[in-house]
């Protein structure tokens, strides 16, 4: 019923969208298909490995790895909501996506992106307590609180995405269906609207600013306190361990928020569609692929767990 109302609002002729993507660069499409397919495979393998290790190794049954496995699951779902459709469009002449498919893609990708915004803030809080309140860590960050914070992140993402999706697809498109992007995203969809969207753009900008900048401010505040606490550690080895653990999370935060802020908080008159596409490639496929590498290459616990699982599997043979 909701879909029927949206289609009536947008005109009965609008049954789907054409994702123009990189169709103006046919030679680039083949290169992108091969590169993105490789990246997608590594994304699946890397994030699945993090989730599996977090469940298989008892030493990783800690709040930090609980949140990390949530992040890996988020990245898996987020990439899968976009990349398979992109690969299909890159590999053939058919660039279409159904109206319902576009609604679902926007809802899922936006919901997972909003969830990750909150989850990264939760992970910063976890690191703050671990470094600045180590004696009270197990008391403060107990399993029930971990589950509550993770659930709240997911619920906020789902609710926020539902609101944005309904607002976007209630706009009249007047039969316009050529979407100058490789997936259904808010800035590109707004360009198809055949009505004054100044107020809606302002509202979306304001909500996006809250979604992005509030977690960033909280993360920066947390890491300011963390750095102060680390510098008070007299042991050089202790400082290196603390910086190594927190450095991984801070790298992920920089990569994710930097690209998201560029995509959603840039004034529309300065927004370059071509730049937007390549930035979107970065946060839809590159960042989810890099996250497992950042955590495994800089984390002795994860590397140790991987060795244990591999040796156990080898010995069982």
Which keywords apply here?
12 helices, 76% helix, globular, single chain, mainly alpha, 3 strands, 317 residues
Shape summary:
globular
Mean pLDDT: 83
How would you spell out the order of helices and strands? HEHHHEHHHEHHHHH
Number of helical segments?
12
Strand tally, please? 3
Low-confidence stretches: none
Intertermini distance? 55 Å
Biggest β-sheet: strands ordered side by side in the sheet: 2-1-3
As a percent range, the share of strand residues is: under 5%
- Structure class: mainly alpha
Radius of gyration: 21 Å
- Largest sheet, if any? 3 strands, mixed
Name the helicity range. over 70%
Description of the molecule:
By secondary structure, this protein is mainly alpha-helical. The protein has helices spanning 2-10, 26-56, 63-80, 83-91, 99-132, 137-140, 143-169, 186-190, 198-231, 236-264, 273-297, 300-316, and strands at residues 16-19, 96-98, 178-179. The protein starts with a helix and ends with a helix. The mean pLDDT is 83.
Summarize the structure.
The chain has helices spanning 2-10, 26-56, 63-80, 83-91, 99-132, 137-140, 143-169, 186-190, 198-231, 236-264, 273-297, 300-316; strands spanning 16-19, 96-98, 178-179.
List the helices and strands and how they pair.
Layout lengths: L1 H9 L5 E4 L6 H31 L6 H18 L2 H9 L4 E3 H34 L4 H4 L2 H27 L8 E2 L6 H5 L7 H34 L4 H29 L8 H25 L2 H17 L1
Parallel strand pairs: 1-3
Antiparallel strand pairs: 1-2
Helix pairs in contact: 2-3, 2-4, 2-11, 2-12, 3-5, 3-11, 5-7, 5-9, 5-10, 9-10, 10-11
């Amino acid at each position: 019923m909701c879909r029927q109302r949206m289609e009536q609002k947008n005109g009965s002729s609008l049954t789907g969208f054409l994702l123009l993507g990189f169709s103006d660069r046919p030679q680039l499409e083949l290169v992108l298909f091969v590169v993105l397919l490789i990246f997608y495979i590594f994304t699946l393998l890397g994030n699945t490995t993090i989730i599996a290790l977090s469940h298989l190794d008892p030493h990783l049954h800690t709040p930090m790895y609980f949140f990390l496995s949530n992040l890996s699951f988020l990245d898996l779902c987020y990439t899968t909501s976009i990349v398979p459709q992109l690969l299909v469009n890159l590999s053939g002449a058919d660039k279409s996506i159904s109206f319902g498919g576009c609604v679902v893609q926007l809802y899922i990708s936006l919901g997972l992106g909003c969830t990750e915004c909150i989850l990264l803030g939760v992970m910063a809080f976890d690191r703050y307590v671990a470094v600045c309140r180590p004696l009270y860590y197990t008391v403060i960050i107990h399993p029930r609180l971990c589950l509550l914070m993770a659930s709240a992140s997911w619920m906020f993402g789902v609710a926020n995405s539902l609101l944005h999706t309904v607002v976007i697809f209630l706009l009249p498109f007047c039969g316009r269906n050529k979407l100058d992007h490789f997936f259904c995203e808010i800035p590109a969809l707004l360009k198809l609207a055949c009505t004054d969207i100044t107020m809606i753009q302002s509202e979306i900008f304001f909500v996006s600013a809250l979604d992005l900048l509030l977690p960033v401010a909280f993360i920066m505040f947390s890491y300011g306190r963390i750095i102060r606490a680390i510098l008070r550690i007299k042991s050089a080895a202790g400082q290196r361990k603390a910086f190594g653990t927190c450095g991984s999370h801070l790298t992920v935060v920089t990569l994710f928020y930097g690209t998201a802020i560029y995509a959603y908080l840039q004034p529309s008159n300065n927004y370059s569609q071509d730049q937007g596409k390549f930035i979107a490639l970065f946060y839809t496929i590159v960042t989810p692929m890099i996250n497992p590498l950042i955590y495994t290459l800089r984390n002795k616990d994860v590397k140790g767990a991987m060795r244990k699982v591999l040796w156990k599997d080898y010995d069982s043979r």
